[in-house]
Structures are given as C-alpha cells and as structure tokens.
TrEMBL record:
Single GO MF descriptor: ATP binding
Record text on subunit structure and interactions: Homodimer.
Catalytic activity field: tRNA(Tyr) + L-tyrosine + ATP = L-tyrosyl-tRNA(Tyr) + AMP + diphosphate + H(+)
Binding-site residues, ATP: K246
Gene of this entry: tyrS
Residues annotated as signal peptide: none
InterPro entries per the UniProt record, alphabetical: aa-tRNA-synth_Ic, Rossmann-like_a/b/a_fold, S4_RNA-bd_sf, SYY-like_C, Tyr-tRNA-ligase, Tyr-tRNA-ligase_bac-type, Tyr-tRNA-ligase_bac_1
Sequence motif 'HIGH' region, location on chain: 51-60
Keywords: Aminoacyl-tRNA synthetase, ATP-binding, Cytoplasm, Ligase, Nucleotide-binding, Protein biosynthesis, RNA-binding
Protein name: Tyrosine--tRNA ligase
Domain of life: Bacteria
Motif 'KMSKS' region in this chain: 243-247
Length: 419
C-alpha cells in the first residue's frame, strides 16, 4: 500500500486534491500512479453497489459523493449495479451469510436504487457523463468451467484466506459458504470486464473492500498486462463511536418512499457538534472556506452550522424544494406556532370515541420502535403533547383535542389528526 501523504499540497491532480482536502482517502494502491493518471486526462472510475434493498442508505453516501467529486473534477463515473453479485452476497466483515434474494427481488431493488444516483451524478453519453452498468450482463452468461479455468487459476487460496475480511470471520469460527468465498473472484472479474469494456482504470469503495479491490487489480495485471488502481474511503463513525447512518429507528434511507425528506433533514440536523465540520466536507458541496467558518462557530451557534448541513445534504438527496420544506417544518415545530407539514398519523374510527393510547401512536408514527420503547420514553419524561410532558403510561389523546403535536425528545415530532 502507498504510504504517501494524502494532503492536497502533495498531489498534482485536481481530483485527488479535492478528495484529500475533504477527507475521502483512506488507502490507495499507488497514489503517485493514480495522481499522474488523473492529471493526464479523463479517468473512468467505478464503484459497485449490490442490490440488497430497494434503496441505498446513508452508509452508501460516502462512495456516491466520491464519484460526484471525481465527475466535478473532470472524470467519468461508472456506477456498477451488482445484479449478478447480489445473487451471491458480499461476505466482507459479516458474521453471517446474507439471505439469498430471488431474481424478482433483485430486479425490484435495482429499480429502486437507480433513482438515487440521478440526484448526485450527471448521466449521458459525454466523455465525463456517468454511466450505469449491471454486472449480470456478463456474470449471468459466465460458464462455471470457463470461470474456473480462465479466472480461478489466477487466485491463490492461501492469499484469499489471508485477507482481513475472510480471516476475521474464520478466526471467530463463523461459517463461510463456498458461494460467499467466490464473491471476491466475481468482483475481481468485474474490474477486468470494466477495464476491457470501458477502459476503467480505478475502482473505489469503502475500506472494507480493500481486499476485493486488490484482487481485481492483480487480475487485470495478470491478464491484460496493465496497471490499474484502487482507492478506499474511510470507515465512518460518529464522534461518539456509533456507526454512521444507523439510528435507533434503523437505516437512514436515501429514497423518499423509505424515509420522508423531513426525517432525513432531521438526521443531519441532529449531528453531534464534533462531527459538523467533517460531515460538511464529506456530504455537501459547500466551499472549504465557508465550512471552516461554520465549524468554528462557538457554543450554541454551532446549531446554525447543523442547519446548513441538513439543508445542503437534503437538497442533494431530495432537491432544494424538499430541503426548504423540511427546514420550514422544523422551524414551525420548534416554535410551536404551526405543525403543518409534520409527519402525521390519524386516529382510526375505532379509536375516535375513547381516544388512542399515546404508546400506540408513538409506535405507529415511528417515534418508537416498540411499545416497550414507547413506555420507557414516557417514563423518562421524553414524551410531550403540544409541549406538555406525558407522565401517565396509559395516557390517551382524545378526538376533541385534535390536532396535536406529539413529540419524542426535542427534535422528533408527529402530527396527530382526527379520523
């Protein structure tokens, strides 16, 4: 692995200077070589995304933003959708095998995640326009004996077992199927195919993909006699050590049908103080000079920077109008003047005569994952109705009082309406 400094003053190309300045680079196979390639002309770069769900989530956002940065620096993003590799499942740093999906599920998931990239990248037929390809186009036609003979013979089992992603699982004595063990061969074959088909010179991905990327580089060298490159982004955790993009309510999805833009905005608005500057650099297009000003705001003024972060990140994922609407909804919720625009639930016809339990409404509205969690929120004094704390675990909201704003904590709110 290259040991050079990733700071922008040590780099020649605009692309790597931008990535280095904003904190996108974790590892690179040959930093000088990749830097020279970026400086010499347009470089096609790919990142792969398996179709394990019908939306991507914030955990995928760092590689997506990496492609965005490279396109803005004059290079060509290749979005590889793993229609073929999803049928196997990436075992990297997992304790258990991924559930196998049907072909119909994979196809539906691909349709769902296509929409994400159109917000972040410019697609078309120009020299730096992004393209989207599906590795099922070549993997589904691959004969097993051909794969063993032409590709498999270039892989050392000893070396495959030495990669951290595999070694850690075996050391824990977690089972790994032969199907999963083949994943790294298929991903390496993807790099070879994209190099042959599109002149792809670099693969990028999260730090957990280092072993898979190195395998692809080695395969291209063996079969094509060409040097290609690999670069990984850091594994992101919050300042408190939590995994980036995970909340008590689950994954922070990028598709609006999985997570409303208001909730997405709130996720960024709730960023820890110590993470604001880093997240502004990684997840927005704001100039570095402006980010330096925002992260230097003292005391409670840092909340202004969090609002800027939430607006900019939501505008990228959902559009400026959605970001503005979420911001205005949040302002109304905090001031208590108007709850219009908040996520809402309605009393059912059966509930209308006697009202609905606050516990049930918390769960139904997504403010609590279970009734047990809802009761703990109430017992801890964290639930309010129109700003008044709820103390009774059996408290109800009655129809004659509607509409009301139901809050869990200071930043999560729900409008309760009539049937």
């Amino acid at each position: 692995m290259d040991t050079q400094d990733f700071s922008p003053q040590t780099l020649r190309s605009t692309a790597l200077q931008a990535l280095g300045a904003r904190g996108y680079i974790h590892q690179c196979t040959n930093l000088d070589g990749l830097d020279a390639a970026f400086a010499a002309g347009v470089v096609p770069v790919y990142i792969g995304f398996d179709a394990t769900a019908d939306s991507l989530h914030v955990g995928h956002l760092l590689p997506i933003m990496t492609l965005r940065r490279l396109q803005r620096a004059g290079h060509k993003p290749i979005v590889l959708i793993g229609g073929g590799t999803t049928r196997v499942g990436d075992p990297s740093f997992r304790a258990t095998e991924r559930p196998l999906l049907s072909d119909e599920q994979i196809a539906a998931n691909i349709q769902g995640i296509r929409r994400v990239f159109e917000r972040f990248l410019t697609f078309g037929s120009g020299p730096i326009d992004a393209v989207m390809v599906n590795n099922a186009d070549w993997l589904d036609r691959l004969g097993y004996i051909d794969l063993l003979r032409d590709i498999g013979r270039h892989f050392s089992v000893n070396r495959m077992l030495s990669f951290d992603s595999v070694k850690a699982r075996l050391e824990r004595q977690d089972p790994m199927s032969f199907l999963e063990f083949n994943y790294m061969i298929l991903q390496a074959f993807d790099f070879l195919e994209l190099h042959r088909r599109a002149g792809c010179l670099a693969q990028m991905g999260g730090s957990d993909q280092w072993g898979n990327i190195v395998n692809g580089i080695d395969l291209v060298r063996r079969l094509e006699g060409r040097e290609v490159f690999g670069l990984t982004t850091p594994l992101l955790t919050t300042a408190s050590g939590a995994k980036m993009g995970k909340t008590a309510g689950g994954a922070v999805w990028l598709n609006a049908d999985r997570l409303p833009p208001y909730d997405y905005w709130q996720f960024w608005r709730n960023t820890e103080d110590a993470d604001v500057g880093r997240f502004l650099r990684l997840f927005t297009d704001l100039p570095l000079e402006r980010i330096a000003e925002l992260e230097a705001l003292p005391g409670a003024e840092i909340n202004q920077a969090k609002e800027v972060l939430a607006n900019a990140a939501t505008a990228l994922a959902h559009g400026p109008e959605a970001a503005q609407a979420a911001n205005e909804t949040a302002r109304r919720a905090f001031t208590g003047t108007n709850a219009e625009g908040l996520p809402a639930v309605a009393l059912t016809g059966e509930e209308a005569p006697d009202g609905a339990l606050v516990v049930d409404l918390l769960v139904r509205g997504g403010l609590a994952a279970s009734k047990g969690e809802a009761r703990r929120l109430i017992a801890g004094g964290g639930v309010r109705v129109d700003g008044v704390a709820v103390a009774d675990l059996d408290a109800r909201i009655v129809a004659r009082a509607l509409p009301v704003r139901l809050s869990a904590g200071r930043k999560r709110h729900l409008l309760v309406r009539g049937a």
